[in-house]
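Input structure tokens:
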């Protein structure tokens, strides 16, 4: 397995970086940004170590909203930025408790 030596802390850092990338894709006006959000959501959903933390469910719901914003391209920039930042803070909170 390629990621066998990765720790949960490394994985959470990866997801924080992916959330930042979602924001960048929105700011750049990338029409395929929603596909990146969907891929990241699928990766995060199948992380068994995080599924029992209520914050992981909140992160997924925020990413679903980001998906809609990137798909329909009708969101306010400040709202999208707030969703991304809140998601990153929740992920940081999970990371600190490890």
């Amino acid at each position: 397995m390629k990621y066998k030596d990765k720790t949960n802390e490394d994985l959470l850092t990866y997801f924080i970086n992916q959330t930042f990338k979602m924001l960048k894709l929105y700011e750049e006006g990338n029409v395929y940004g929603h596909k990146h959000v969907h891929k990241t959501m699928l990766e995060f959903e199948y992380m068994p170590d995080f599924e029992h933390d209520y914050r992981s469910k909140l992160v997924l719901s925020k990413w679903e909203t980001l998906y809609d914003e990137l798909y329909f391209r009708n969101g306010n920039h400040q709202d999208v930025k707030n969703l991304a930042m809140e998601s990153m803070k929740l992920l940081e909170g999970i990371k600190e408790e490890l």
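The chain has four helices and no strands. The radius of gyration is 13 Å.
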